């Protein structure tokens, strides 16, 4: 018996063995051993005991393992490791299959059928799910709002590999926390720090904001039924189609313009507060923020009968003006009528006069930090967030609303809608990778656009677990950390452990579009 310390092999016969790589006369190709050697990073449990049987002496000091029928496997596997060399004048040659658990594997992810989602195959979520699994039946009258890719207890992704004993990604990570990467594992106590999603929005989501960590802990302690954890919840959305949302407070000039053109809004806020905002100057940002806080708080705390009457008057007026062919843009008429048709009598309809309307084209992103008021309105996007369910809502929702907390916590810094578009940085190492790296430690996203001219592409290893989503294109993926080849196509989702890479053999005439969620510490 000999103790061999080695790494996962490639499933192919080795080149000439490097003598002394493991000590003594036992040789294993260096590329199986050295971190990063031959383009393969170190991986897997490093101290696995294996049995090696000494063979009778042969003429050749280093026999080819393929020359012996008894040793030639019909299908070498990615986990196979060849060991050959001479021992005490004799020689041995053996195929050792090490029992490494697969560290790259496909996932089947949870769908959330919230009422605001797009219906049937109008939904990008439904299209991805149907493409990813042909056995799934899409119901034409059912909303498909969100696809969850992660370990959230209400949607823990299922592992699509029956050779892995754990059934869900959360269970697998709990049993194999090193897969997160050393820094991520330590920083986030052995948990995947993000939830990756696809959203298909048909009707508006609530006007909301997410608390910072300090406020989250306080809210969780006081109202755990509404704020179920003590974590913050920054988010980032990247458009897949044209995507609309409300985000952050408008420049003061725009809000003042609405106060002067929408008398129903001015009635809710009151003359004193409206005039205070009109008088506030750009040379006094604290004064502007204070006046803005007063106006928005007065709006959101309006007595219900009063604001419903004013909203009905506003809707009636704009509807009449639109019927007469008049321009209603001064009252943001089109958006008001749309939101009122979705949430009649809701105070959230008035927030369009305070918050920026942000329109994203495919590939553009919005980052939503703590205390940033926002509401998604329409479109399809990928989204990533920290692992939390803490949302403070105040309108456009039938759910619990907490107006007082929302108005106290918000960032009342006005800024133009263009400032809300979060830029992607093209990688200097790989021209096909665009990185969205927000100012939080919990997550980042890579958009990978592989042109049709590229037929072989490497998804590089990194010191973080990641989740890969295929939006467009087809390929066969191979990895030393996978149990077998993986067929990738639209809707495929893969979990990639830290320090593992995947080779993509592309077969699509249109190239590929991928998104990779990760944690960069």
Task: Describe what you observe in this structure.
The longest helix has 20 residues, at 304-323. Strands 5, 6, 8, 10, 11, 12, 13, 14 and 16 form a 9-stranded antiparallel beta sheet that branches. The protein has an 8-stranded antiparallel beta sheet with strand order 7-4-24-21-26-19-18-17, with no helix packed on it. The chain has 11 helices and 26 strands. The radius of gyration is 29 Å and the shape is elongated. With 521 residues, the chain is α+β, with helices and mostly antiparallel strands. A hairpin with a 7-residue loop joins strand 18 (433-436) and strand 19 (444-450).
What is the arithmetic mean of pLDDT? 85
* Structural class assignment: alpha+beta
State the shape. elongated
Spatial extent as radius of gyration: 29 Å
Find the count of extended strands (DSSP E, 2+ residues).
26
The first-to-last residue Cα distance is: 42 Å
Question: In terms of per-residue confidence, which ranges show pLDDT below 50 for 5 or more consecutive residues?
Answer: 1-93
Hey, roughly how much beta strand do the residues contain?
A: 25-35%
Main beta sheet: 9 strands, antiparallel
Q: Assign a percent range to the helix content.
A: 10-25%
Count of helical stretches: 11
């Amino acid at each position: 018996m000999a103790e061999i310390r080695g790494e996962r092999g490639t499933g192919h016969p080795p080149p000439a063995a490097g003598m002394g790589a493991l000590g003594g006369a036992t040789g294993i190709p260096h590329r199986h051993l050295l971190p990063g050697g031959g383009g393969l990073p170190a991986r897997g449990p490093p101290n696995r005991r294996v049995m090696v049987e000494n063979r009778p002496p042969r003429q050749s000091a280093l026999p080819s393992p393929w020359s012996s029928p008894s040793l030639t496997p019909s299908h070498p596997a990615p986990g196979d490791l060849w060991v050959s060399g001479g021992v005490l004048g004799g020689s041995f040659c053996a195929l050792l299959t090490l029992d490494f658990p697969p560290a790259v594997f496909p996932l089947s992810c949870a769908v959330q059928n919230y009422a605001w989602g797009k219906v049937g195959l109008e939904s990008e979520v439904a299209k991805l799910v149907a493409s990813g699994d042909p056995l799934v039946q899409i119901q034409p009258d059912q909303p498909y709002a969100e696809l969850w890719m992660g370990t959230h207890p209400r949607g823990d992704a299922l592992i699509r590999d029956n050779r892995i004993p754990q059934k869900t990604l959360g269970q697998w990570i709990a049993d194999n926390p090193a897969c997160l990467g050393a820094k991520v594992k330590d920083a986030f106590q052995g948990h995947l720090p993000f939830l990756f999603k696809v959203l298909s929005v048909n009707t508006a989501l609530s006007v909301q904001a997410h608390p910072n960590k300090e406020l989250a802990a306080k809210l969780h302690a006081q109202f755990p039924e509404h704020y179920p954890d003590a974590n913050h919840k920054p988010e980032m959305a990247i458009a897949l189609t044209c995507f609309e949302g409300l985000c952050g407070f408008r420049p003061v000039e725009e809000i003042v313009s609405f106060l002067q053109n929408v008398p129903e809004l001015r009635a809710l806020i009151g003359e004193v507060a409206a005039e205070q905002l009109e008088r506030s100057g750009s040379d006094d940002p604290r004064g502007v923020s204070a006046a803005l806080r007063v106006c928005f708080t007065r709006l959101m705390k309006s007595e219900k009968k009063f604001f419903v009457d004013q909203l009905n008057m506003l809707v009636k007026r704009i509807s009449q003006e639109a019927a007469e062919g008049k321009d209603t843009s001064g009252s943001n008429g089109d958006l008001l009528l749309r939101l009122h048709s979705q949430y009649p009598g809701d105070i959230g309809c008035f927030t369009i006069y305070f918050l920026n309307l942000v329109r994203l084209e495919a590939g553009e992103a919005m980052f939503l930090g703590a205390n940033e008021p926002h509401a998604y309105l329409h479109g399809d996007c990928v989204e990533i967030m920290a692992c939390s369910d803490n949302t403070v809502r105040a309108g456009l929702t039938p759910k619990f609303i907490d107006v007082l907390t929302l108005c106290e916590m918000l960032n009342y810094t006005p800024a133009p809608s263009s400032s809300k578009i979060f830029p992607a940085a093209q990688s200097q190492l790989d021209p096909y990778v665009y990185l969205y790296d927000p100012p939080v430690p919990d997550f980042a996203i890579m958009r990978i656009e592989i042109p049709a001219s590229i037929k072989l592409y490497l998804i590089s290893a990194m010191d973080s677990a990641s989740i890969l989503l295929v939006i467009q294109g087809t390929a066969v993926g191979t990895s030393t950390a996978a149990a077998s080849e993986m067929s990738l196509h639209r809707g495929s989702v893969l979990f990639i452990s830290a320090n593992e890479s995947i080779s993509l053999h592309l077969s699509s005439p249109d190239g590929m579009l991928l998104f990779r969620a990760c944690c960069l510490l």
